[in-house]
Amino acid sequence: MTVAAPEPITDQWWSTLRDDALDTLIVESIDVNADLAVAAARLQQARAVADGAAAARRPRLDASAGAARERNPRSTLRDTDGASASTPPFTQARFSAQLEVGYEIDLLGRLSLAKQTADADVEASESDVIALRRWLAHAVVSAYIDVRLADDELLRNRAAQALQHAIVRAETQRLVAGLSTRSALREAERGLDSLIDAERLLGTDRELALTRLAVLLGKAPVDMQLAAQDDYFERNFFTGALAPGLPAEVLAGRADVAAAWQRVVAAGIDAERTRRARFPALTLTSNAGYLSQSLRGWLTGESMAWLVQASLLTPLLDGGRNQADTERAIAQAGEQHAAYRKVVLQALAEVENALSELESAQARLALAQAEHRRRIADHEAGRAALRAGTADRPSVLSAELALIDALSNVRRRQRDAMAAWADAHQALGE
């Protein structure tokens, strides 16, 4: 059995990154993600229930045909004078064909309420699919930028290792010439060892991020491949402009809030439907067909029979089942209303926290960029001093190493700002 695919995403906020690989991953995740498939199946179930509720309000037409043969036992009849007569056992055939039309008149709107409940459940399930689809896009973006950060960090780690190797060689030469100490050499060697250890950790970080992507795309981790990109954040960094709007507008854009509200509506309507279940139900039934004891007389005018009837069913004693069902429905309506309030408060908190974190992340990025500019100035001053003979080569290499570290910090802060930007879009229901 196939489940209808969700509608395409129209609010592609991540498209501002201009990354075709990311776009492809998000589309693929929507096609294959197991959680989204479950939500889509639930939506299909809700639509089927709504179709059934709509069908209950329409007339029912049934057709039947049958053939039977029966044996009747001996019977004794007694007339008014007390005389009796008996008939011997006999067999007879019976042939029938008929159409029956049934229709329940919606006296108190119970059938209409059942349809309204089902429709609200459909809207809630549709909102669930939208919310999960948006969460999935956000999760893919988050894992993807972590992969790209690992790529960038590995690139700079290799550049730092090359510089640190040069520092070790320079300190070795200076030690031989009597211009340095063994402790300075050991410190340079420890710096190289730290960079080598960091490379292994960065490789692990990349594999973990790839594993997250694999799960979102329904793949085994070993099958998740993503080519490395150099200087990704320099080429693709963009947080875009956010316009949160008023709280009411923010809540209107949240699919989880919409789903919670539709469940409140459905529960309230269902409570009223159960309350009306204790009142009478009026059903109209009509059937027409042919009844005959022989095939020869079957389907003739003489064998035609018909019936029209109206029936009124009123519950009298049910052991308290209707009352219990009504109380259950009222309690469920209260539960859904409380759940809705919780979702609303959580949504407002998420928006406030996400926007605050975005502001903080952008501020930290500005500080990192300022530090990077200072390191650039230090490095240029060191090179000028080396040319003038007032500085040694290890100190200049160390300044260049500090410059690489400062740039790495900028890239990490860029990643944090992009993650906060993605979180803000998620909180705003985009």
Q: What's the number of domains?
A: 1
Portion in beta strands: 5-15%
CATH topology: Outer membrane efflux proteins (OEP)
Radius of gyration: 39 Å
CATH top level class name:
Mainly Alpha
Q: Please count the beta strands (DSSP E, at least 2 residues each).
A: 6
User: Looking across the biggest beta sheet, what order are the strands in?
Assistant: 1-4-5-6
Order of helices and strands: HHEEEEHHHHHEEHH
Tell me the distance between the termini.
31 Å
Q: Give the CATH architecture.
A: Up-down Bundle
Mean pLDDT: 83
Helix content: 55-70%
Return residue spans where pLDDT drops below 50 for at least 5 consecutive residues: 1-6
Work out the helix count: 9
| CATH H-level superfamily | Outer membrane efflux proteins (OEP)
User: Structural class, please?
Assistant: alpha+beta
Shape, per Cα inertia axes: elongated
**For the report, how would you describe the main beta sheet?**
4 strands, antiparallel
Characterization of this structure:
The chain is α+β, with helices and mostly antiparallel strands. It is 63% helix and 14% strand. It has a 4-stranded antiparallel sheet with strand order 1-4-5-6, with no helix packed on it. Helix 3 runs antiparallel to helix 4 (182-216) and helix 8 packs antiparallel against helix 9 (393-427). The longest helix has 68 residues, at 321-388. It is elongated. The two termini are 31 Å apart.
